[in-house]
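ARCHIVE CARD
Drawer: 12
Card no.: 0347
Subject: one protein chain, sequence and derived structure
Cross-reference: see card 0346
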Amino acid sequence: MSGYSLSEISEWICADKKLFGDVTKIVTDSRKAEPGCLFIALEGEVVDGHNYIGGALEKGAIAAVAHKKFDHPDDKILYVGNTERALRTLARLHRIKLDPIAVGITGSVGKTTTRDMIAAVVKQKYNTLVTQGNLNTNVSMPLTLLQLEKEHEAAVIEMGMTGLGEIEELTTTLLPQVGVITNIGVAHMERLGSRENIRKAKLELVQGLRGGAPLLLNGDDPMLWGYSNPDLKVIFYGVENKNCQITAKDLTVLMGSTTFTICYQGEKYPARIPCMGQHNVLNALAAFGVGVSLGMEPKEAASALDKYEVTGWRQKITHHKDFTVVEDCYNAGPESMRAAMNTLAGMPCTGRRIAVLADMLELGHISDDAHREIGALAAQNGIDAVYAYGEQAKHIVAAAKEGGVGDAQHFADKEALTEKVIAEAEKGDIFWVKGSHGMALETLIEEVYKRA
């Protein structure tokens, strides 16, 4: 964000005074401070940016925004009621000034994959800014918006949350012209207590949508199916629910890809995505729906799906020596775990299908049953072996054994699980590695590649 004067920023954020000068960029990390930048001191649970104002000013910051009084030169500090709110205000005004087409995505599961598929489609028509990594919080999403430049014609933005009210803050900052909700799962059940509360939190997205804006919802999700809003154009997409406006049929799962036919407004469009499973077809239908909502020809939107690229430990398939690893440990919840077990069962395999799993976190009172369900599903799907670690993963293993999986083992720690995978790897085997991000199964994968 450049080209703004410090005086107009002072007014936008309702600072205690007006300072003067030209701002070259906005930073919240003092290590990135440079001459001409504006440093916003954010107060976090662990790190308080107010403690680093002096360092930012020493590096040449033109001024700092703060809500705590410290012993700094008064002509260098803009005091506000809350610095995080000031950051969102700046991001919102910057977004309004440049006015790109904005797409807002949220949901319990699959929002990052859906975001990247939407970006793959939208980029075929518009110069597009896309959320990077998991920068979808009340702080990181506004920072993404501040990266908008005049040449950007569209912005595809992911919104995450941990509690009620957070999506509202993000969507009223973004003001999207198109909204997408991928599903209502059980992530954050520990904090929100029920799927009804999770649904309420996700549907806060509509509070930032403009009148008549398209809102794309997963019609296969009973928590979303049937939602209506007279102020919006609600569009449902689904694979199993054929009453949706956008549906898919003829799904064929191959090693590393899925082909299918999109059915839309009485016409059929062939499509392919470079990833596997029905859950990813749902994500692709959302991306197709965004494309046509933004004026793309349906054929063009369908063909663009093939340009999606798998990133960041999200179902990336790696053929290592004589066996295959599905790197799917970016995160995990019951919905994505079920999708993984179903997809693994359908993969062509000349060896064994082996699930390498770890805990699903933040599930609260449903955690035991949710883990048992995954073990039972692995058995039902004929998975050859289940290896897992974590306090809750013991329920996966117990249910897998009860269901008839002959080789189901629980390990005390990740190191023991790693040794087991290395020892077991044989020609033709497929290892599907999945667990919540906090379980860090990527380190297991890296060690397997080094030693197996």
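Annotation on reverse: The first helix runs from residue 6 to 12. The mean pLDDT is 96.
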